[in-house]
Queue: 3 jobs
Job 1
Amino acid sequence: MAAGIIDPTKVTRLALQNAASVAGLLLTIDVMISKKRKKQKIVN
């Protein structure tokens, strides 16, 4: 607080909790669905 920086504990805790949850799901299902990549045209 002296430096003017406030770190809400709940936000930090939930971010870590959600990251651990996603990591756990990836370890158990071995598959991750992400955004589909756009095809790139090859220009010669």
Job 2
Amino acid sequence: MLKIAVNTRLLIKDKIEGIGWVKYETLSRITQQHPEHQFYFFFDRPFSEEFIFANNIQPLVINPQARHPVLYYLWFEHAIPRALKRINADLFLSPDGYLSLSTKTPSMNIFHDLSFEHFPKDLPFLERKNYRYFFPRYAQKAIRIATVSEYSKKDIIEKYRVDEDKIDLIYCSANDSFKPVAEDVKKRIRAEYSQGAPYFLFMGSLHPRKNLARLFTAFDKFKQTDTLGTKLLIVGMKKWWTGNIKEAFDNMEHQDDVILPGRVELKTLNEIVALLRHWPLPTLVI
């Protein structure tokens, strides 16, 4: 039996976003498929029982709450090593990329992308300094690295000089709840979220690296020839609604056709996705 400690600090009830969903979907499967191992879930705050997926999971709350670069350091370089030593862990798994440089416990992580290396100004000063100092070191520290695309794998190899054989690809997939919906549901969702009109959808964290400013510009151009009254539905919290995102939105000619419902629960999100017109991907080109 292995004792596997897992950084689960992003599993927060009703606040899960992209990386958090990767944690949720992978850990819910791994823990149930491997009852022969003991898992220790490291939370940084009181947790919901819905994240305790199996009987072989022991949840532990490790202080302090890590939501600032200084607190990241205290959590990963001081609190985590103590917890790993206390449980005598065989492995530390960190699905959000962060590791501890202060532990001798074998560690592996998931790198989702290196956007902070290519677009550092999209992050606050301390955040980008933290990423650009620690993540190259995490890449060397890890006994294995998982990542979600061929592009990210190549980027990690070139940027951090990591051996290709050290990196595993784990592609993302859709949540099982995303399924076709009935016609009455479609009518209700259109009435509730898009004034009965067809719509484009963006969902995720409203962050500069998501290229929302360009999406707003593109939608304005599309509306010049649109004859269907199409809306742009933006699903996500406005935490990073500053700088060029706010400026681009404020300057939109068709601002009234952009709908911002904030975060929605998974069931509602499935219903919204089921009848969208198109799904724009405003990817930053590196």
Job 3
Amino acid sequence: MWRSRTMALGYQPSDKVRLMFTMNARGRLSKLPKGYYGNAILSPVVETTVSELCESSLSYTIELIRKAKQEMMEEENMQYMVDLVALLRERPPLNIERTYISSDIKWIGQTELDFGWAKRIGGGIPATGKT
């Protein structure tokens, strides 16, 4: 999907494009306090050029994603992500120009969230920039 979307948008071959995806950090991040019930999601990012993405084999893209997931599971990288999110709370929305965001969050139970006023129908991250 990332490749097809990138090709359809007609970016220049030398443009950098990114894929951001979510990972559940529970069971991977040892410093979560006992009884913590908040978000525990990491967001690795893969970056490559349009030409590398569109002209390389599918195995190239899979390897980029595999490597990003593997690196994100290293304890210091997970802690960095936690610290970064805490820092970004005070900042304006994230500019994610030319970034495709993919998420498989079926395992975090967000469809079961109940804040007491209505059933959750959607969500996302605040972002600015071109698609």
